[in-house]
Specification:
The complex is a heterodimer of chains A (about 300) and B (about 600). Chain A is an alpha/beta fold. Chain A is built from ten helices and eight strands. Chain A has an eight-stranded mixed β-sheet, with helices on both faces. The N terminus of chain A is likely disordered. In chain B, the strands form four sheets. In chain B, strands 9-8-10-11-13-12-19 form a seven-stranded mixed β-sheet, with helices on both faces. Chain B has a six-stranded mixed β-sheet with strand order 2-3-1-4-5-6, with helices on both faces. Classes of the chains: A alpha/beta (about 300), B alpha/beta (about 600).
Chain lengths: ~300, ~600
């Protein structure tokens, strides 16, 4: 059981009368039938509804890939970034307007390939944003090449003789970079994922929700069945303490016949913005932008 | 004692002084130089300074040149009047730069110089036991301050202002440090003063104080942006742009600006873009290498039509290039950076004063036209201090362009962020506003922002974005003309060469001056082809002056007007044009 209770509030005005369809757009989904991404989209919408968030107070920053295309069909203020660059944009937006709920949606190729450095530094910085990765162990929009989370030895279009590199472990990386909220979801359990995303949004700091999300078109290994056979839920594991960093590290390394998901770790260190005295009070965007008197500032040059 | 041998020639007095101090990194070359500059600014003089230093922390050879003048100065000389040599290498490297009648001040305990060498060069040597005097005052580290005192004596400036500056400079280090520095200053002054009072060719007594400040173009640009309502600044350290980061980080809390040192320039540009997107004024700065990393974001700025000011303080490229030296070789890069065909505004300040103005004007341009605005500066002015009339915010205006208020937005039935409009500028909403939802999309998009690859939509959006630049081109300032506007000889330049060209020009005989006009481009893109044609087609001779090997502005002019300038004065050894270079070019032009 998790040691963390649901406490805290989301930023900005909330509305308890929101429903899931309020987050639909007129844009038709471009995901394949049966795609693991649908489970994430549903869980995210449910989480937003259950938290009473309104579309105008949510900024959804998407990467490039199938996951990123989702920005077209989730109603919010959307930002469709460049491949790998979603996190820095989200950090800048959150620091400038702390009243927004900033959610980043990226893929494993996107976020852990070109975006890997940003990922580590965003975890270190701990700005109050939520990072949901659509982790399908493959580059799928580009028709199935190996990704940073693909298992060693896997044959793909770009590695026909089998992948040589060892796979990256986002959970371990986040834990060792000082992550204050490190979790993994599974798109085959949208109810659990909804709860996880809610906790992540409520967490005051950087929250990682790495989501296993089978690609039904290109990934014939990491299928729904593959995950159903292996996953066990930490949130239901007796004696698991999600405030124990060593326990979290051990679970993060379990890999093979069994794989853990759920909340690995959470603590309460202050977010990046909380260290900045200039962010106390109103959000930067809510203060009038006017000409500054610089008479005091020029004194040091006189 | 060496000082007994000193006899300074009393030539016709010179109204400007070129002073240089040289030694290893870590000797306090820059800090001594800065103090010397500030002393003479307070004494009513105009100043420009220039440092040469390798990219290392200790050792190497550092020099600091200061030009002190009674009239405004923004350039440096190849030759100096006083050289302060803190080590033997400084004599080896810089002795030949000393003007006839000039003085070599050297540490007699560390530096040897043959009397014949001094005599042959008509240079007076003043050997001072800087090491012993500094140790007596406190520590050997203060050799620079002792030399400063000696220099003051030579030019007839008493220590009252200097003592004040020392107090201000070292106050935070405690009274003991202040006292020993004042003692060191006096030791150098006393060692020299009895022998040489009033004898040196350049005497700089205190004049009426002006309300000037001593500042670099980097700090000026930052101050301009601060005055103009900057809210978010991100950067990754890179010489010679880092002092913008240092200055803004220092005043961040006081001014309420968020300053973020991010993990790389890619992150820098995207963070600033995120901040700008939600509604604050944002800026980033770097040098060419960092800008290379920002290039993919530049395209994103263009496509999402998000305001962003991007500063490139140029150094010698390509690759790591000449990290601490000056160059103007990024112009064509700025015009073309990023894939695809989109628009940007490129502006280049000529000096600190222009940098201040561009700091706030660029934020307006970015907001009004919703595009990237690039400010192209360089190491010479970015790190060089100059005296300018103290800046104030009186003429600073903020124009945020078309951002809808909630009331305006509520009257719109179906809001479209990228609505196709006559002037190409589509009104913005900011995240948080009900009814103003949109997607800022790195894919080509429809008016709402949804990804859209249709033929007609693509054409409409490309054309819409292009119309914005046409709007700006109609109102942007024309190139500046100096000198005789009707002259048939035209000198063309952009950026920091302003200082050396105008300083050299005013020193020319009237007969030569009347035949020359000078054209400066503050705005490089969009390019004012019509005005350029008018000036160049009415010129008999044209000289273009650029710090790059290829004549990048000359190429731009040829591209836009078909006019090929053959007479190019180009310098690309990392050094700025010296006054001597330009005076000779203008005399022979």
């Amino acid at each position: 059981m998790t040691a963390i209770r649901h406490v805290g509030q989301v930023s900005g005005m909330t509305d308890r009368n929101m429903k899931e369809s309020d987050f639909n757009t007129s844009y038709k989904s471009t995901w394949c039938p049966g795609c693991g991404n649908f489970g994430i989209a549903i869980a995210l919408k449910n989480a937003l509804v259950e938290l009473g968030l309104k579309p105008e107070n949510v900024m959804l920053v998407a990467g490039i890939g199938c996951s990123g295309n989702g920005v077209n069909f989730l109603k919010a203020y959307g930002w469709h970034s460049l491949h790998g660059r979603a996190l820095p944009t989200a950090v800048g937006a959150k620091l400038a307007n702390k009243d927004l709920t900033v959610i980043v949606m990226a893929g494993d190729g996107d976020g852990y390939g070109e975006g890997m450095a940003h990922f580590i530094h965003a975890v270190r910085g701990n700005a109050d944003i939520t990072y949901i990765t659509h982790d399908n162990q493959l580059y799928s929009l580009t028709t199935g090449q190996s990704a940073p989370t693909t298992d060693k030895g896997t044959k793909t279009k770009s590695t026909p003789e089998g992948l040589i590199e060892f796979k990256a472990n986002p959970i371990s990386l986040a834990l060792s970079s000082g992550g204050g909220f490190v979790s993994r979801g599974f798109s085959g359990n949208a109810t659990h994922l909804t709860g996880l995303i809610k906790k992540a949004i409520l967490h005051k700091g950087f929250s990682l929700v790495d989501v296993f999300q089978p690609c039904v078109t290109f990934n014939k290994i990491n299928t729904f069945k593959y995950f159903f056979d292996r996953l066990y839920n930490l949130d239901e594991k007796a004696d698991y303490n999600s405030n124990d960093i060593l326990m979290a590290h051990r679970e993060a390394l379990v890999n093979g016949d069994k794989i853990a998901y759920g909340l690995f770790y959470q603590d309460k260190r202050p977010s990046y913005g909380q260290y900045l005295p200039q962010l106390a009070g109103k959000a930067l965007t809510k203060r009038p932008i006017k000409v500054r008197n610089i008479d005091q500032l020029t004194k040091e040059f006189a | 004692m060496l000082k007994k041998k000193n006899k300074i020639s009393n030539r016709a007095s010179k109204n400007n002084l070129v002073w240089k101090i040289a030694g290893e990194a870590g000797f306090g070359i820059k800090s001594a130089g800065m103090m010397f500059g500030k002393i003479f600014m307070r004494a009513g003089y105009e100043i420009f300074d220039y440092t040469e230093y390798p990219s290392l922390i200790r050792g190497g050879h550092n020099t600091y040149q200061l030009v002190i003048d009674t009239k405004p100065v923004n350039s440096v000389f190849k030759h100096v009047d006083i050289l302060v040599a803190l080590n033997q290498n400084s004599v080896t490297q810089n002795f030949l730069e000393i003007n006839k009648g000039g003085v070599l001040i050297y540490d007699s305990e560390k530096v040897k110089i043959a009397p014949a060498k001094l005599k042959d060069s008509h240079v007076q040597g003043i050997g001072i036991p800087l090491t012993s005097l500094a140790k007596e005052a406190g520590t050997e580290l203060m050799r620079n301050v002792v030399a400063l005192g000696a220099s003051m004596a030579l030019v007839g400036q008493n220590l009252s202002i200097a003592n004040k500056i020392v107090r201000e400079n070292f106050a935070r280090k405690g009274q003991k440090i202040v006292d020993s520095n004042i003692q060191a200053l006096k030791a150098g002054y006393d060692f020299v003063s009895q022998d040489v009072a009033n004898q040196f060719m350049c005497q700089l007594p205190t004049l009426a104080n002006k309300d000037n400040i001593l500042i670099t173009a980097n700090e000026s640009l930052a101050l301009g942006a601060v005055a103009g309502g900057l809210g978010f600044y991100a950067a990754y350290p890179m010489t010679p742009s880092s002092s913008i980061l240092h200055y803004l980080a220092k005043i961040a809390e006081k001014t309420g600006i968020v300053v973020k040192h991010a993990e790389d320039e890619i992150s820098v540009a995207n963070m600033a873009l995120g901040a700008s997107h939600v509604g604050v004024r944002a800026m980033v700065a770097t040098s060419g290498g960092g800008f290379s990393l920002m290039t993919e974001t530049l395209g994103l700025v263009g496509l999402t039509e998000t305001p962003l000011v991007m500063v490139d303080v140029q150094r010698g490229g390509p690759a790591t290039g000449l990290p601490t030296w000056t160059e103007q070789a990024d112009l064509q890069f700025m015009l073309h950076a990023a894939q695809g065909d989109f628009l940007r505004i490129v502006m280049a300040p000529g000096d600190a004063g222009e940098a201040f103005e561009m700091g706030h004007l660029a934020l307006n341009h970015a907001d009004m036209y919703q595009l990237p605005v690039i400010i192209l500066s360089d190491k010479l002015i970015g790190e060089g201090n100059t005296t300018v009339p103290r800046f104030n915010s009186k003429n600073v205006k903020i124009n945020r362009g078309k951002i809808l208020s909630q009331t305006q937005l509520s009257k719109i039935k179906e809001y479209n962020r990228y609505k196709v409009t006559a002037d190409g500028i589509s009104p913005r909403t900011l995240p948080g506003m009900p009814g103003g939802l949109f997607i800022a999309n790195s894919d080509e998009h429809d008016p709402y922002g949804f990804s859209n690859e249709d033929s007609q939509n693509r054409i409409d959006q490309v054309d819409k974005r292009y119309r914005k630049l046409d709007q700006f081109a109609k109102v942007m300032p024309k190139p500046l003309i100096y000198g005789n506007p009707k002259a048939k000889k035209t000198v063309v330049f952009w950026g920091s060469n302003k200082g050396v060209i105008l300083d050299s020009y005013v020193a020319l005989p009237d007969k030569i001056k009347s035949k020359i006009r000078i054209m400066q481009y503050q705005y490089l893109w969009p390019f004012d082809g019509k005005f350029t044609e008018k000036i160049l087609n009415s010129s008999k001779e044209i000289l273009i002056v650029e710090n790059n090997p290829n004549g990048q502005l000359a190429n731009l002019i040829a591209q836009e007007t078909g006019i090929k300038i053959k007479n190019k004065l180009l310098k690309y050894d990392g050094r700025p044009f010296f006054r001597e270079d330009i005076i000779s070019a203008l005399k022979n032009f």
